[in-house]
């Protein structure tokens, strides 16, 4: 009878530990996936911003050396990602391909301008910065005009801010849920040992001495759960990067490494915190309250 009871208790204990590890792994995995979305949401938005083109139209009288100097100064600027010179002849050829007819036959000459297309870095694609760049470049006497899509820039920035706000809110809510779920799982595991806790306390063991093995056991479970979550996250990153290379998911290796490290540390901290307060609760209970 005694052996059967011990086996039953051992199975219950293993089942309890398994549920704690599984809860930690699943919650941290989902939290990590949300973190990956946060990192890559910025990357995607930056990619869209860097597609915005600032077009500098040049006077027909502009000299080649002046154009080269302007291109070089732009290329070395902190705010420019890349530049491309478009000759008036290349622009005319593009118009022919686009509209399927030679419009030059109607006007008798090429009215298009030589131009430089500038792609800015994402942090500089704002109305204020673009206006400032436009104002400083227009001071050159061989620059005729500068154009960019102001409405698109305003719409893009407002949507990015709105999306970032919602992602932060959802991340905060999900982090709170993760803490509650892991805490509940650990509290249930500690609850099965409440009589042992009270027995040790009654024979004179200090609270610190009683808590120590529970905390270390929970930390080990947290490490196992965190490692399982990281393996799952790594599999997702590998699959998405292979299936959708255009996302360039692993371009931010520093951020992804920091995310993986944070998930691992969070798993340990939550289990430590949850176990400390769970054992503290039972240590503060009176003996007759253990049955409720």
Task: Explain how this protein is built.
The chain is α+β, with helices and mostly antiparallel strands and 292 residues long. The protein has 2 domains: 2-47 and 156-291, no CATH class; 53-148, Alpha-Beta Plaits. The chain has helices spanning 2-49, 64-75, 88-99, 104-107, 127-137, 150-191, 194-202, 207-243, 253-284; strands spanning 53-58, 80-86, 115-120, 143-147. The protein has a 4-stranded antiparallel sheet. Helix 1 runs antiparallel to helix 9 and helix 8 (207-243) packs antiparallel against helix 9. The longest helix has 48 residues, at 2-49. It is rod-shaped, with a radius of gyration of 31 Å. It starts with a helix and ends in an 8-residue tail after the last helix. The mean pLDDT is 78.
Secondary-structure element series: HEHEHHEHEHHHH
Proportion of residues in β-strands: 5-15%
Whole-angstrom Rg: 31 Å
Average pLDDT level: 78
**Structural shape:** rod-shaped
Counting DSSP H or I runs of 4 or more residues, the number of helices is 9
Enumerate the strands of the largest sheet in spatial order, edge to edge or round the barrel: 2-3-1-4
- Helix-residue proportion: over 70%
Number of strands: 4
Spans of at least 5 consecutive residues with low confidence: none
State the major sheet: 4 strands, antiparallel
Structural class: alpha+beta
Itemize the secondary structure elements and their pairings.
Elements: H1 2-49, E1 53-58, H2 64-75, E2 80-86, H3 88-99, H4 104-107, E3 115-120, H5 127-137, E4 143-147, H6 150-191, H7 194-202, H8 207-243, H9 253-284
Antiparallel strand pairs: 1-3, 1-4, 2-3
């Amino acid at each position: 009878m005694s052996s059967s009871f011990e086996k039953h208790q051992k199975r219950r204990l293993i089942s309890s530990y398994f549920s704690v590890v599984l809860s930690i792994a699943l919650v941290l995995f989902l939290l990590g996936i949300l973190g990956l979305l946060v990192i890559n949401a910025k990357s995607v938005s930056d990619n869209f911003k860097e597609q915005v083109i600032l077009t500098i139209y040049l006077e027909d009288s502009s000299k080649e050396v002046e154009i080269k100097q302007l291109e070089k100064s732009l290329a070395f600027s902190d705010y420019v990602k890349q530049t491309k010179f478009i000759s008036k002849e290349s622009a005319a050829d593009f118009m022919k391909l686009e509209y399927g007819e030679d419009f030059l036959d109607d006007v008798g000459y090429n009215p298009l301008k030589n131009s430089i297309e500038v792609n800015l870095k994402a942090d500089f694609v704002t109305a204020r910065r673009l206006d400032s760049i436009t104002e400083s470049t227009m001071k050159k006497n061989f620059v005729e005009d500068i154009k960019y899509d102001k409405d698109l820039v305003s719409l893009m920035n407002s949507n990015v801010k709105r999306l970032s706000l919602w992602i932060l809110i959802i991340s905060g809510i999900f982090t709170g849920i993760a803490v509650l779920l892991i805490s509940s799982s650990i509290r249930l595991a500690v609850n099965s040992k409440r009589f042992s806790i009270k027995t040790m306390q009654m024979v004179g063991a200090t609270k610190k001495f009683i808590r120590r093995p529970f905390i270390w056991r929970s930390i080990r479970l947290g490490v196992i759960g965190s490692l399982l979550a990281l393996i799952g996250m790594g599999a997702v990153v590998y699959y998405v990067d292979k299936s959708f290379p255009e996302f360039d998911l692993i371009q931010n290796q520093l951020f992804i490494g920091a995310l993986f490290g944070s998930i691992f540390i969070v798993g340990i901290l939550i289990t430590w915190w949850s176990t400390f307060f769970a054992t503290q609760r039972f240590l503060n209970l009176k003996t007759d309250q253990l049955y409720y």
